[in-house]
Amino acid sequence: MKSNKKLFFFLFFLTAVFISACKKKDTLVGQGVLNPDDYLNGITTDTFDLETYTIEEDSIITSNPPNTVLGSYKDPKFGDFDASFYTQFRLGSLNPNFGDPSQIVLDSFVLALEYAGYYGDLSAQTFEIYELSENLSIDSNYYSFSSKSVNSSNLVPIGMGTIVPKPNQASIVGGDSLDAQLRIHLDTNFAKSLILEANNGGTTFSSNETFLTFFKGLYIKTNNPAQANGQGAALYFNLNDAASKLTIYYKLATIKKTFDFLINSSCADFTHLEINNFGTNIAAILQNPSLGNSEFYAQAFKHRAVVKIKHINKLPDNTIIHKASLTLPIQYQTNYRLSPGISVSVATKLKSADNYYTSLGIFGGFEEYSKHFRIDLRDYIQAVLNRSIDNTGLIISPRFFINSAERIIFNGKNTSNKKKPQLIVTYTTF
Fold it and tell me: What are phi and psi of 353, to 5 degrees?
């Protein structure tokens, strides 16, 4: 009986030691000073305090983007978004022979733009097109605020510019089913002037260089002054797709013919943005960054979210980071078409004295079920502790910052919503 009691107490002692050895220590950094001796050789999980706000960009290069953006929408949270673009065209072939002008019957003159997606509400928009009077250069950088001089005449005939975009529906052209396109009709008199120039025996159509001195390109925009809150969309187009082009449709006698003016990688093009946040919460936060602790914002072309991690430098120098997970909950608007997108990118100032941000090559994905972005910061936190970079804060942006219209509303730590931003770090000291 005595031996059984001894065995019982021995097993109880072993169990207690085992449980004690496996227990994690949880602390809240910022609520007290860490004592490295308490965490030696142990696995520790800490939650860090975060400061959040929004900054504004004013010099975004938009030259030759992967996708261009066109269209407008009115956002009850972010204000007015309006995107347009400028582009050159190149000849489908040199020295075209259109034939006897007296035998030519013009059918139509169409700008086709291959859809690459959209953002917002697919209600009707009114499109306008103007001929450039100022040259573009493929070697120049153009910014979101850049503009070029244009002729005053809208080349879209009256009554033909209002179109309901259909990016999810095939386009039927000449009985053929094609990938979805926006097709805008231009004045055929402009097509006639191009044909006459080609037939006059000059050198205009002998090279793309001489052609561009005659036809400098087009400016494509929308004009939607009556849009209500929640209406409108930003449309995405792949200008380098072979389907994106300007085409003259005509008959020579009774024979149907076409001639294409191409948009390709040799053409200069850029996106022009007009974003008006007047009277919105964003404008207030830019004036008073502390308001960003309630909610903060990111918006393509314009605004970046800032997350500053307080107290991270209070961790001991002899620290190995195992996990560092940043979660950024969002304000999700049910049935709202202006969704937060699927991914964000992360940048920082590597040194406090830097005047520029450097991409960390880190991307956070949106988790639909939990309505937050999750970002793995293990390497970043380790670099801060190793003093290879400074703890200057994180710059969070929509991943497709210069070729989308995405915007995000993040919850701050003082939000009235249940979910708050959080950084949880798991580490060992040695």
Answer: -80, -5
Pairing label, strands 343-348, 394-398: antiparallel
Whole-number Cα distances in Å, 411 to 154, 341, 351, 398: 44, 16, 27, 16
Any idea which residue has 């393509």 for tokens?
Answer: 300
Name which of 320, 317, 309 is nearest 47 in CA terms.
309
**Cβ neighbour number for residue 178 with a 10 Å cutoff:** 14
DSSP-assigned letter for residue 241 = S
Cα dihedral 41→45→51→57 (10° resolution): 80
Place of tokens 């002054």: 225
Evaluate whether the domain defined by 23-57+281-429 bears CATH number 1.10.150.
no
Of 243, 373, 210, 391, the residue nearest 305 (C-alpha) = 373
CA distances, 279 to each of 80, 120, 276, 308 (Å): 11, 21, 9, 26
What pLDDT, on the 0 to 100 scale, is given for residue 336?
65
Q: Tell me the per-residue pLDDT of 311-356, one tens digit each, with 9 for 90 and over.
A: 888 888 889 999 999 999 998 665 567 888 889 999 999 999 998 9
Q: 176 pLDDT band (50/70/90 cuts)?
A: confident
Instruction: Give the HSE-up count for residue 280: Cα atoms under 13 Å, Cβ half-sphere.
Output: 21
Q: What is the DSSP string of 4-36?
A: HHHHHHHHHHHHHHHHHHHPPEEEETTSS---G
Q: Where in the chain is the domain with CATH 2.60.120?
A: 23-57+281-429
- Partners of residue 48 on adjacent β-strands: 423
pLDDT tens sequence across 207-246 = 999 999 999 999 999 999 989 888 999 999 999 999 999 9
Q: Which amino acid, 407?
A: R
Q: Which of 262, 265, 146, 271 is nearest to 215 (CA)?
A: 262
What count of other Cβ atoms lies within 10 Å of the Cβ of residue 101?
Answer: 11
3-state secondary structure of 380: helix
Q: What is the DSSP letter of 103?
A: G
Q: What would the DSSP string read from start to end of 274-326?
A: EEE-TTSHHHHHHH-GGGGGTEEEEETTTEEEEEEETTGGGS-SSEEEEEEEE
